[in-house]
Amino acid sequence: MSSFHVGGKVVDKVDLLRKKHGFWRLDVWPFAILYTVWLTTIVPSIDFVDAAIVFGGLVAFHILVFLFTAWSVDFRGFAHFSKVNDIHLADACKITPAKFCGSKEILPLQFRKQVTGSSTSVYLEEICFDFRKQHFIFSKEKENFIKLPYPTKETFGYYLKCTGHGSEAKVTGAMEKWGRNV
Questions:
Q1: 127 and 40 in one domain?
Q2: Is 93 helix (H, G, I), strand (E, B) or coil?
Q3: Does residue 90 fall inside a structural domain?
Q4: Residue 15: enclosing H or E segment and its boundaries?
Q5: 46 & 115 share domain
Q6: Residue 180 maps to a domain
Q7: Residue 37, domain extent
Q8: pLDDT at 61
Q9: Hey, how many other C-beta atoms are within 10 angstroms of the C-beta on 160?
Q10: Radius of gyration of the chain (CA)
Q11: Is 102 found in the same domain as 72?
Q12: In whole angstroms, what is the distance from residue 123 CA to residue 131 CA?
């Protein structure tokens, strides 16, 4: 699935993207072909001043395409990335925020291995991204991105019985999952 409808207060939709490398970007290879065509057909067939004018037009068009990749998130996603269906093939995501919550952004996906269990080393892969200081993780059960669930709905007795993490490994695991308590 290349698109996830989160439907939250902050994030509405997440599109999976894979970065195109080097020559395959749409702001590189079409212009390499256009510059080659200009050099092989236009320069020999017309005088130098007219060829320079055509070259100036090509350079101006190339600059406009470059600026559009800076100005428009959708165009940058089209030119620099390709959509993928498998989350393990994606290395970035385009975030469409909920209405009246800002503009779209392209963010890198983070693939992290987390240690679970105290005595055995069981690694769970966590796929996540950070959007506006909020952490979203991929839930395999729901097949969607969800906000990182914090244990805030427990009773007071649950919190009073807590004695801490107990070991340095648990502290490190909690810090990787929840972040620093700042």
A1: no
A2: strand
A3: yes
A4: strand 11-19
A5: no
A6: no
A7: 22-77
A8: 94
A9: 7
A10: 24
A11: no
A12: 25
d(CA 22, CA 29): 9
Cα separations in angstroms, 110 against 5, 29, 90: 19, 29, 10
Q: Which residue has the tokens 């959007």?
A: 131
Each residue's pLDDT tens digit, 155-180: 888 778 877 777 887 777 777 777 77
Helix axes 48-71, 73-80, angle to 10 degrees: 110
Other beta carbons less than 10 A from residue 174's beta carbon: 13
Token couple for 132: 């506006």
In a domain, 164, yes or no: no
This prediction has a pTM of 0.73
């502290």: which residue's tokens?
171
Contact 131, 105 (CB under 8 A): yes
How many other CB atoms are there within 10 angstroms of residue 20's CB atom? 16
Please name the residue that has the structure tokens 């801490």. 164
Kindly report, residue by residue over 63-118, the tens digit of the pLDDT: 999 999 999 999 999 999 999 988 888 899 999 888 887 889 999 988 877 666 55
Rounded (to 5) percent helix, strand, coil in the chain: 40, 30, 35
Contact residues for 136 (Cβ-Cβ < 8 A; gap 6+):
6, 11, 14, 128, 129, 130, 145, 146, 147, 148
